[in-house]
Amino acid sequence: MARVKKSRKIGQIGTPKESRPPRKPKASHEGKPKKHKGNPSGSRNSVESSGPAETNQRQHKDPRVGSKKPITLVAEPKASANKPIKPKYFSPRQELQAIEDSEKLSTLLDQLDDGEKISKADQHYVDVTLARHKELCDMLGISQESKEQQNDDDPFERFEAIDINKLK
Question: Burial level of 47, CB count in 10 A (0-12/13-18/19+)?
Fold first, then answer.
């Protein structure tokens, strides 16, 4: 025989209360609408079927969203031919020292001293750099005459300038 579970409910004892009128069934369109979350499954790869005549005329549309532009996988270095990179200096003295130590400027000046012709771009570079050099020298109070005077005041220079034959 099947087992019957015990229950705490007791059947009706006595007379029932007054009967209530029956409830109206709820209509599905009343109240809050159901919340829909996301697209239905498989919507990405499903084919749109708006009509057989239209699908034959136009090509199959890609359902994926986004740009179709091809992307290069190898990064190419940026070419900034228009703007030369200008180093920044903390003081005019450092900039002056950098101009005087510049190998490119010294080689171009050597070529000009030898009488060789240089390109217009190199000539422009030399002109701009020498103008900046002169500007920095004026700013710092250095002039070519003062450099020559410093060389005259140098005792080693005076010692080398002495002609030994005159002393005999």
Answer: exposed
